[in-house]
Amino acid sequence: MHLRAPDPLGPSAVRKGGLKGSMGLRIAIFVLLLLGAAGGLHMALGDPGDAASLSRSVFLGGSLLEFVAPEGESDRWHMLGGLEVVVRFPREERIAANTFRCLLNGADVTDQLTVGRNGAAGHVYPLLEGQNELACQVFGRGWWASRYFQDAALVRVRARGPLSFDTG
Predict the structure, then answer these.
(1) Residue 9 φ/ψ, nearest 5 degrees
(2) Is residue 42 a contact partner of residue 49, using CB atoms and an 8 Å limit?
(3) Quick check: 159 and 132 in contact, CB under 8 A?
(4) Whole-number Å distance between alpha carbons of 35 and 38
C-alpha cells in the first residue's frame, strides 16, 4: 500500500472555488487580448501616435458623429450667404440627440439646424470672409458603461464674397 501526501490543488481546491477563479482569469486574459487586438488594428489603420484616439475608440466604440457636408479641409470656396450642414450619427442608438450643439466661429447656431435621432441638417450663417470653423458636439453612451461621453467634430471651410467683374 502506497500513501501520498494530499495535493493542495487537488479536488478540495476545485470545490472551494478554484475552478471559478481559473475561469475568471481566462475571461480576463481573453478581454485583454481582445482589447490588444482592437488597439493593434486601430494603430494599423490610423495614426500610430494617436493614443487619445485609441482610448476614445475603445471606450466609445468609434465616432458618435461625422460630417457628411461640408467636406472637411477641402480646397473648395463657399459663398458668404450660408453653408449647408449635414451631420450623421452613425451609432444613433447610443446618442442623446437633445445634447447636440453646433458652433460656427464660436457662435451657437444649433437653432438653424433640424436635429433628429440619426443626425442634423440645415443651413448655417453668417460665414465670415476667409477661414471659418464649424464645430459640432454630442453626448452618447460608451460601449462599456452607461456613462455619457462627449464627442466632437471640427471642420474648417473657406468663404469669399461675390466675384467683382468691374475691371474699370
Answers:
(1) -105, 20
(2) no
(3) yes
(4) 5
Decide: helix, strand or coil at residue 15: helix
List the one residue out of 115, 6, 1, 14 whose CA is nearest residue 65.
Answer: 115
Averaged pLDDT for residues 106-123: 95
Q: What is the pLDDT of residue 106?
A: 94
* Cell reading at 104: 460656427
Cβ–Cβ under 8 Å, residues 86 and 168: no
* Spatial contact of 119 and 153, defined as CB atoms under 8 Å apart: no
**87 grid coordinates:** 451631420
How far apart, in whole angstroms, are the C-alpha atoms of residue 51 and residue 43? Answer: 9
8 CB contacts (<8 Å, ≥6 apart)? none
Alpha helices in the chain (DSSP H): 11-13, 19-45, 51-60
**pLDDT band at 118, cuts 50/70/90?**
very high
Contact call for residues 35 and 27 (beta carbons, < 8 A):
no
- Please write the tens of the pLDDT for every residue from 133-147: 999 999 988 776 677
Confidence of residue 39 (pLDDT cuts 50, 70, 90): low
